[in-house]
Specification:
NADP_OxRdtase_dom; single chain; NAD(P)_OxRdtase_dom_sf; oxidoreductase activity; alpha/beta; two-stranded antiparallel sheet; Aldo/keto reductase; 13 helices; 12 strands; oxidoreductase; about 350 residues; about 15% strand
Length: about 350
């Protein structure tokens, strides 16, 4: 696959990255043999960037990646690691931490679990409410100087926070949910800010938690995710699946699936919006093969216009998370006006 630079001075990456969160999900963990085979399939296909976090499975995901990479050339793999999500023994999230001491302590444990002497991109998973972003990024910058971290990233933050962080140390990329069903990064000015500053975007949730696979069907019993993902609520789901159906003839015209079309749309945004990498969440090798086909899809301007017409940015029913979770996202606060800064 062709590579692109992730941010000014950042690493060379392929248009597709592998998100490993689902391999350690506490409610339905993947078969470990399948998970490791999936990582190997992605690397064999040329994917270079693996995304993880120290709180995915409370360390399980990092251990899994270490086992998958034990016989691989470490310098050919880019590890992107998030930190700051605090969890209780029952797996519940109980807060966000960004103090400098925590930053360094968290990395020490991640390096041990991953079996490596450095991570390629290190990022806070969310904006910590009680710690200035300058303090958090300053601590990571010290780790860069010490050689434990190669590049610094951000996750789910808005334009003002991006600028403040970038002023402390160059930011490689911002990880954000971005898909045909989640156009907030365009509306809130996040994508434009990243392009202006030479920062890449790693887009997760490109298939909208399964809605954009083209195979999801509404069940009579309802989806248990509906209480924290409003787009799966019965009041919204039928309308959203109708939007997905609008993509089918466009996908058929290219001989690809709806999922591949949705992934190709995200990758195509790099033409005008700077470097954007689609993060694939996969737990089995064949999912990697399916997603890779999207990399080779060329969407014309006419194709992109037809997709936008099929799914306008404001057409999706329901917010991407329930209100209490949305309130925690700095990325959802939008750009501030000059009068409010």
């Amino acid at each position: 696959m062709q590579t692109r630079t992730l941010g000014t001075g950042g690493p060379q990456v392929t248009p597709l990255a592998l998100g490993c969160a689902g391999m350690s999900d506490r409610t339905a963990p993947a078969d470990e043999a399948d998970a490791i085979a999936t990582i190997h399939a992605a690397l064999a296909a040329g994917v270079t960037l693996l995304d993880t976090a120290d709180f995915y499975g409370m360390g399980h995901n990092e251990d899994l990646i270490r086992r998958a990479l034990h016989d691989r050339d470490r310098e050919k793999v880019l590890l992107s690691v998030k930190f700051g999500g605090l969890r209780s023994p029952d797996g519940a999230f109980v807060g966000i931490e960004g103090r400098p001491a925590h930053v360094k302590n968290a990395l020490a444990y991640s390096l041990r679990r991953l079996g490596t002497d450095h991570v390629d991109i290190y990022r806070p998973s969310r904006l910590a409410p009680d710690t200035p972003i300058e303090d958090t990024i300053g601590a990571i910058s010290e780790l860069v100087q010490a050689g434990y971290v190669r590049h610094i990233g951000l996750s789910e933050v808005g334009p003002e926070t991006i600028r403040r962080a970038h002023a402390v140390h160059p930011i490689c990329d911002v990880q954000i949910e971005y898909s045909l069903f989640s156009r907030g990064p365009e509306i809130n000015g996040i994508v434009d800010t990243c392009r202006e500053l030479g920062i890449g975007v790693t887009a997760y949730g490109v298939l909208a938690h399964g809605l954009l696979t083209g195979t999801y069907r509404q069940s009579a019993g309802g989806d248990p995710r509906a209480h924290w993902l409003p787009r799966f609520h019965p009041d919204n789901l039928a309308a959203n699946l109708t939007l997905v159906d609008r993509l089918r003839p466009l996908a058929d015209a290219h001989g690809i699936s709806v999922a591949q079309l949705a992934t190709a749309w995200v990758i195509a945004q790099s033409r005008e919006r700077g470097t954007i990498v689609a993060v694939l969440g996969a737990r089995r090798p064949h999912r990697v093969d399916e997603a890779l086909a999207a990399v080779d899809v060329t969407l014309t301007d006419a194709d992109l216009g037809a997709i936008d017409e099929a799914i306008p940015a404001d057409a999706v029913a329901g917010t991407r998370y329930a209100a209490p979770l949305m309130a925690l996202l700095d990325s959802e606060r939008g750009p501030k006006s000059p009068a409010s800064t």
